[in-house]
């Protein structure tokens, strides 16, 4: 018997997540240097300085296992969010919390509803458990079609994801629509609200998803330290869930799943309000610049509540930008072959992208 015959069929059929290549490898392949990476929605201002200082003090203790309960981080974050500490579940990035939800809730015959295109890990964690994805297309404005998602729920639906703001479109739903949607869902369903980009949202009517954790059993809000705090390389995220759901996720969690340095850095970053304000200010200016300049080039750009923009630049733009040393995220795998996702960079990086796109539009490059 061949090894593949021992592998579960739904795992054999998985399409693995495709990360972007490191800058160093792309430069080697293309024979270029000085590239800029605007592909992974990372912090263009680096990590929180307070997090770096805390890390430097902690290096001598890495021979010790992490605090398996994340006590210091849990206490500080619970106070910040206004939720009891026992309702917090930490993971190696919010991705691990997604996987815990799938592990606890899904199996063959079960269904998970989510919008599409949306976060690439949703189909992976669902299929990894042998469950079925029910993809609900975004509406004409590339926003979650919440009524259609509610209509897709049936007796087999165990889990529903809402990505708000949505990745990769940057669009978001408002409070009125979100509250009506949440109130319409059956009680025997877990609703996971993915708020990885919540810190960048500017719309005044952005939903208070944490309020639904208090009001509705089977609700979890997931967030990350990767984006606003610049700790993507340390992999730490969390979910705030109702007490019963949090307890089940804790049972399924591996011990010491969050490393010691990540815990220390995250706790310190929570206190770095000055850094957060600098990042959000830089993001606002960068978003406005990119949206204005790209539209001026005749490129369709969707309104974004995140730290990136979705742009309809035309097929082949990703490869042509690569030749100019500008790395963005192609969207063909999301069913958007004529679009790219562009992370907001520092001003010089944003300007370099715009100049490269201008040359492409004018027939150069």
Structure description:
There is one protein chain. With 365 residues, the chain is α/β, with parallel strands linked by helices. The protein folds into two domains: 19-46 and 274-361, Alpha-Beta Complex (Aspartate Aminotransferase, domain 1), CATH 3.90.1150; 49-269, Type I PLP-dependent aspartate aminotransferase-like (Major domain) (Aspartate Aminotransferase, domain 2, 3-Layer(aba) Sandwich). Helix content is 40%, strand content 15%. The strands form three sheets. A seven-stranded mixed sheet has the order 2-8-7-6-5-3-4, with helices on both faces. It has a four-stranded antiparallel sheet with strand order 9-10-13-12, with helices on one face. A two-stranded parallel ribbon has the order 1-11.
What is the number of strand segments?
Answer: 13
Please state the average pLDDT score. Answer: 94
**CATH architectural designation of the largest domain:** 3-Layer(aba) Sandwich
Low-confidence stretches: none
Q: If helices are DSSP runs of H or I spanning 4 or more residues, what is the number of helices?
A: 15
Order of helices and strands: HHHEHHEHEHEHEHEHEEHHHEEHEEEH
Measure the end-to-end span. 53 Å
The CATH class assignment of the largest domain is: Alpha Beta
The major sheet is characterized as:
7 strands, mixed
Tell me the domain tally.
Answer: 2
State the fourth-level CATH superfamily of the largest domain. Type I PLP-dependent aspartate aminotransferase-like (Major domain)
Helix content: 40-55%
